[in-house]
Each structure stands twice: as C-alpha cells, then as structure tokens.
Amino acid sequence: MKQASPNDMMEMLRRYDTWVFDCDGTLWRGQALIEGVADALQLLRDLGKKVLFVTNNSTKSRKAFKVKFDQLQLPVDQAEIYSSSHSAAAYLQSIGFKKKAYVCGERGIMEELAAAGIAAVGGPDDNDRRLEGRPVEIDPEIGAVVCGADPGLSYFKVTYASLCLRHNPGCLFIATNTDSRGHFIEKQEWPGAGATVAAVQAVVGMEPIVTGKPSPFMLRDVCAAHATTPDRMIMVGDRLDTDIAWGHATGMATLLVLTGITGRDDLAAEWGRPGFQRPDYVMASFGDLMGISAAARAAA
User: Fold this and answer.
1) Is 280 an annotated catalytic residue?
2) Which among 85, 101, 164, 244 would be 20 to 30 A from 280, CA to CA?
3) Model confidence band, residue 51 (pLDDT cutoffs 50, 70, 90)
C-alpha cells in the first residue's frame, strides 16, 4: 500500500476527463473546507476537466448544497451536484411513480420529491408526533417510504413507515443510501442514513431499493445528464464501502483520500484481505494534487 506519487497524479490528469467527487470528508468536514481542495478543483477546471459532485448526504437538496458550495467559495453549477435525496426522487420519477411518499429523513428529501412533482408527507413535519395508545391511521395513497439520515427519527416515524410498507399493497421501500455514519460536523462522525434504514428494516424484514452510492442508478443518471462514460471517469471519495465500491461496481477508476471515514489504519487492515477491491490510487488529501510542479501541471 502506497500513496499516489507525482507521476501517479500526472497519470490521473492525463487519463480521466470527468472527475466525480464525494463531498463530506473529501472536500469538507462539517463547515470546514479541507486545505488545498479549492485550488486542486480549480486546477482540474483550468485543465478542461469535467467536475461533478456526488454525495450520499440526503439532508440537503441540490439547491441547498449549492448554497453550501457558495458559502465555502467553491464555484459550482447546481447541475453539477448530485445528492442521494435527488437520486431517490429521480428514481421514483423514472418509474412513473404517481402516489405519495412518506419520508423518514430531512427537508432535503422533501424538497427533491416536490421538485420531481411527487407529493410527500412526514420528514421534519413529523418530528414531534407521538403514538397515543390507539391504532395509527395510515394514508392508503402512500406508495413509497423514503429513508435517509434523520436527526428527528422517532418511534412514531418508524411505526408509521413500517405500517405503510406492511399494509399498503406494493409500497416501495427506498433508501437514499445505507451509510452507517458521516461527517455532518467537523470533529465527529454521526449516524447516517443506514441507521434510519436499519430501524425500519428491522420491523418489516424487507430489503430496500438503494438509489445513492454504490447503486448503479445514480451513475446512469449522471452519465445521461453529462454525456460521459465510466471508462473516462474517476471517483474521488473517502469511503471504501460507498465511494470506492461504487467505482468498482460501475467501471470508474477510484481515488481514495484519507481525510474522512476511511483512515490509514482502516485501509491497512483491509489491504491484504482476500477479495478486497483496492482503490486504484490513494492520497492523504485531494489538496495534495497541488504538490505537482507547475510545469508538470501545464503539460497534463
């Protein structure tokens, strides 16, 4: 196991036209931008590379993520951003979904569903609801339960979601992603959408349809919108189980950065395990790309 050398970085710049970035733990941690990342992203743009941002964080919509990019002074077009909240809405839209969705998650999912023309209930609006010792009446028009990271997850929400899945015929179980934890703040890792999904799954015993990384659906959506193909793409992320797994599953090259969930010790522990799908490249931080000499960058 070794980190990418300047020659490796030059090879990446020559070979890949489209660079796909995770956000939390790769570009920033909480509200803090990782050192050198802004300059490294600008270098890619200066070299004519297509730069896209794909995050499993479902708490925000693409519009809200654009606000965060602006606050961090990272130039980006909203069309370059793909969140798992958007992928859930895009999936339902792609299958012609016409019913209502019940959300165990944050406002970002509600906003993306609304943008796709899908009526949604639950989410933060149900944070304060409690069971009252009598049967819960569920809306028969709910045809999907969409689960994402949910700081307001409650016994009521799990109950309502599970009742919809068990009693509304054909009700779909959608997971924006199944990440166990994430860098929602700079200093700690908090439970991710996987915790919400697991709570509902424990009741219903169903496997969810996962629309975010490492699901192939999200990549098909990205490629269709940006006229690109996986063989010319490289996935840059901080997680073996989503970012790197997504690259391997879809044919993209992979670059693991050690600024987020997967640390150096985690990677070392996995490296020799039989069947381990290694990242193609490893960097301590994506900001290290600026360590390549100016002359070498100009020749890329």
Assistant:
1) no
2) 85
3) very high
